[in-house]
TrEMBL record:
Organism: Amycolatopsis tucumanensis
Listed transmembrane segments: none
PANTHER family linked: METHYLTRANSFERASE
Biological processes annotated in GO: methylation
CDD domains assigned: AdoMet_MTases
Domain named Methyltransferase type: residues: 59-153
Keyword Ion transport: no
Domain of life: Bacteria
Keyword Methyltransferase: yes
Name the UniProt record assigns to this protein: Class I SAM-dependent methyltransferase
GO molecular function term, any single one: methyltransferase activity
Keywords: Methyltransferase, Transferase
Amino acid sequence: MWKIARRGQRTTSRADVLPSPNIWYYPDTYELENRAQDVEGDIWRVLADECPWQGKDVLDVGCGDGFHLPRFAESARSVIGVEPHEPLVRRAESRVAGLSSVRVLRGSAQSIPVPDASADIVHARTAYFFGPGCEPGLREADRVLRPGGALAIVDLDVSSEPYGRWMRADLPDYDPAAVDAFFDGQGFRCRRVTAKWRFADAESLAAVLRIEFSPEVADRAIEDVLRDNGSRGRHAAGFTVPVGYRVLVRDKPTGLVLPGHSSSSSSSVSISPSTA
């Protein structure tokens, strides 16, 4: 699965990659979705609280067409976006062409083409990490993180209504409690956030929901949103949808982790050569 290009670096293989059912095939509609998401900045506020990136080196795994890269670049020292799908890599490069601190590389979550210990923050948003089975990506994130760095995963909270209800209808085998238990067992802390999606018109709302859900579930979701918004959708507020997220964060220890201490804690014990 992995090919070593040189020590501390890996190249990507298409066998590593699970195609995205939305942005790979509908990038223009997904741009509408990105612009509609988290319009009040609730996710960004939690991320800034849990793992501030000002003056640090940020790596965004599964960056898609680079939508979030400029936001990180406003205050980070450097930003690297990693994306496996070549057309999206090109779109991301075009988006950040004027930002000297940002690079976009082709790679996957399991095979990130950067050296060991080269990032302070690894960020992944609704990209790869959906619970059991993502262990290779978690190990790879740990490889590229510096001691004291943080892995931040922003994922949809499938237990949250109404968006989670629509997701569960399309994914009946998805077990939100099992996914929560997995990340807890991997040493992540979790903060749940309800973000607001806002669409200017019903056409944009419908287009986005139709790339996220099966036709039957999309029809139901559109009907739910139109009913819940009522006449508000015909005014300046547009159409809003509350969407639940989990912000999962795991810190990389700065020293030796002793038995009984969490590997996600930055308060691990450092032992100098003179005392080891």
